[in-house]
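Milestone 3.1: sequence recovery, worked example.
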């Protein structure tokens, strides 16, 4: 069976992949995340997911410890009125993002890419999230919690940010950072089944 490497520094992605019982190790693949001119949000997240996976594979080239490596990369962006909201640079940017997301619906795009020496498969998963209205005081308090700073769109649906979410249509795990249904499907095609690491009986 190929060895799976997750090219990510995101603790959420590690937790999510662990959740479906796939054995893996991690490596960090830092790439330039600047959008290209006229690039659509879907093309952007797909390019970044692929870039992270490719950068990971490159690190393993000719490494005898990984003769049959397969690398998974992912990227998540919040999209509002066609604009890509990444991670906030500072408090002011986070507050502006939260004000923009307040009392309306936005899209969350997560792309995954799985690559080995011969193949590459990518998938882009779109979800829609509706927020209730967020007051300025709340947005300040939320920033002070520390949660928004390393998250696309300045919120975490899996954390304190859950209180803003009125409605979700799509994939919860994709919003957190890794679409588990699609990830399991693609990994299966690369010869890596899920549910390998089980604590109890197989479901
Ligand atoms: C919308 C949303 C995003 N996020 C996170 C997932 C990602 O970690 C982050 C989006 O940034 P990304 O650039 O996709 O990922 P990253 O830089 O954190 O990690 P990597 O090393 O894999 O590139 O936002 C949440 O945790 N919860 C949410 O509800």
């Amino acid at each position: 069976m190929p060895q799976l490497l997750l090219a990510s520094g995101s603790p959420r992605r590690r937790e999510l992949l662990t959740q479906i019982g796939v054995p893996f190790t991690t490596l960090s693949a830092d790439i330039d995340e600047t959008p290209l001119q006229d690039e659509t949000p879907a093309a952007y997240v797909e390019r970044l997911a692929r870039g992270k996976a490719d950068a990971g594979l490159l690190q393993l080239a000719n490494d005898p410890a990984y003769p049959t490596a397969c690398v998974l990369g992912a990227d998540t962006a919040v999209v509002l009125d066609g604009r890509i909201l990444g991670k906030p640079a500072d408090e002011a940017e986070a507050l502006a993002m939260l004000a923009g997301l307040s009392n309306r619906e936005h899209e969350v795009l997560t792309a995954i890419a799985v690559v080995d020496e011969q193949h590459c498969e990518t998938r882009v998963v779109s979800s829609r999230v509706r927020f209730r209205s967020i007051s300025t005081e709340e947005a300040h308090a939320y920033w002070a919690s520390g949660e928004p700073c390393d998250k696309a769109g300045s919120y975490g649906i899996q954390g304190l940010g859950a209180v803003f979410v009125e409605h979700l249509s799509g994939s919860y795990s994709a919003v957190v950072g890794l679409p588990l249904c699609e990830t399991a499907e693609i990994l299966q095609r690369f010869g890596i089944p899920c549910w390998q690491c089980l604590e109890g009986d197989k479901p």
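The chain has six helices and seven strands. Residues 41-60 form the longest helix (20 residues).
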